[in-house]
Specification:
8-stranded mixed beta sheet; two-stranded antiparallel ribbon; 5 helices; 27% helix
Length: 187
């Protein structure tokens, strides 16, 4: 059975985007970027909601070809482009870069994917991750908490019907002030 990991950058007050989908507060340091690149390398399959997919696919397919791309960005772009991905959306009809589109029941498909043999999967996008969270499918939460308050926007955590008990696995502070925390779901 595969592990499902939900991780993103978020503000200290718990938002992955400020009002208007503004992510300008999230300027990754070299250390934070390397952390996410290492996470990607350890991932077998990435699951995306439409909005995050559109954000990622607008840059990373050619991120390694940008004139000012750092070696870390070049490596990340190649990893991202080559890895297997699934996008859940009923409003787009085409995806590229080693990606499969699912327009049906996301929770049923994620449940099916988790039951398969294989390495870890990550999930991104607040709406998609929220559905997986409510269904009890998330095995690990990875939070990269930035020292900024935005006061509103898109929350990292969704409203839940039941409590989710967690075990702290790791805490690390990066020089830029971001605190990395990993929690496993206690089952």
């Amino acid at each position: 059975m595969r592990k499902l990991i939900y991780g993103m950058n978020l503000t200290l007050d718990g938002y992955i985007a400020a009002p208007g989908d503004d992510i300008g507060w999230s300027v990754p340091s070299d250390e934070l970027f390397q952390f996410w690149s290492d996470q990607l390398q350890a991932t077998d399959l990435s699951l995306y909601g439409r909005k995050l997919w559109q954000t990622m696919s607008s840059h990373w397919p050619t991120g390694d070809q940008q004139p000012n791309a750092t070696p870390a960005e070049i490596e990340f772009a190649r990893r991202w482009r080559d890895m297997s991905k699934v996008v859940f959306s009923s409003t787009i009809d085409k995806v590229d870069w080693n990606t499969r589109l699912v327009a049906g029941d996301a929770v049923a498909e994620i449940t099916r994917l988790k039951a398969e043999e294989g390495g870890p999967m990550d999930i991104g996008g607040a709406t998609l991750a929220g559905a997986a969270m409510r269904a009890g499918l998330i095995d690990e939460y990875v939070l990269a908490t930035a020292p900024v308050l935005v006061g509103g926007g898109t929350p990292f955590f969704t409203a839940l019907d039941n409590w989710v008990n967690l075990n702290l696995v790791e805490t690390r502070t990066l020089p830029c002030g971001v605190i990395l925390t990993r929690y496993e779901t206690r089952r």
